[in-house]
């Protein structure tokens, strides 16, 4: 009897020590109501109520708040672990700089704009590849604007110079596009460039698929870096899903039927009918047949009951 009462009140959430004290005071044959009253007078509370009474450590954040101090979450991950759900970014520095300089000037400010855009989104792995000879003083045939930005990005371990050297007065340049595609492929990241890398696509079939699926093109609009919202076309993923390792599937949007209640397609109708959400979508003819068959079947059952001995 003692064990059964102990189990009963333990299921209600009371502590074993409080239950044993009450049973010792009232005796083993005490009624459950008396034990419950004694527990309430002692001030004992079930564990579920105690957990609810404790103040929660969660803080409410205003909708639309842009404060960086609050631990905002995206796709169920913490902001500090952004590398877990955002893809690495590999930027074709020469392509971005020449595009920002209208293909006339190597504009380093364009590279800075692209890097800042991905930083604001939370990307932690950002690499920019630029040929080493861009560190040399600018010439008339290859002007460079804001060259000090390259030094600052190099100090931040973002800019990487591809090797080059001079042999008998001639500059030998390593192919920087190969570095870009190789690093992005190994890191399973995204290539930021307006170049299609057709020569590298023909060189490696794996690179061909990767370039087709992971190339992010862009535009500069009034010193604003703007990638497209649909990088792979109208029917492809959104920009957020394209840049994330864990894409979020959009919720299905049902288009209402233009015919409404006059629709005669029934369950063959591909549109949404709000007037029959939990009913089988039968055609009008099937519904009439069903209504006619019900009274006929009831009449036959009554005849059988009357004829039975």
UniProtKB/TrEMBL annotation:
Keyword Transit peptide tagged: no
Pfam families: RNase_Zc3h12a, UBA_6
C3H1-type zinc finger span: 251-276
Requisite cofactors: Mg(2+)
One GO MF term attached to the UniProt entry: mRNA binding
GO cellular component terms attached to this protein's record: cytoplasmic ribonucleoprotein granule; nucleus
Domain C3H1-type: 251-276
Keywords assigned by UniProt, alphabetized: Endonuclease, Hydrolase, Magnesium, Metal-binding, Nuclease, Zinc, Zinc-finger
Similarity section: Belongs to the ZC3H12 family.
Protein name per the record: ZC12D ribonuclease
Annotated organism of origin: Oceanodroma tethys
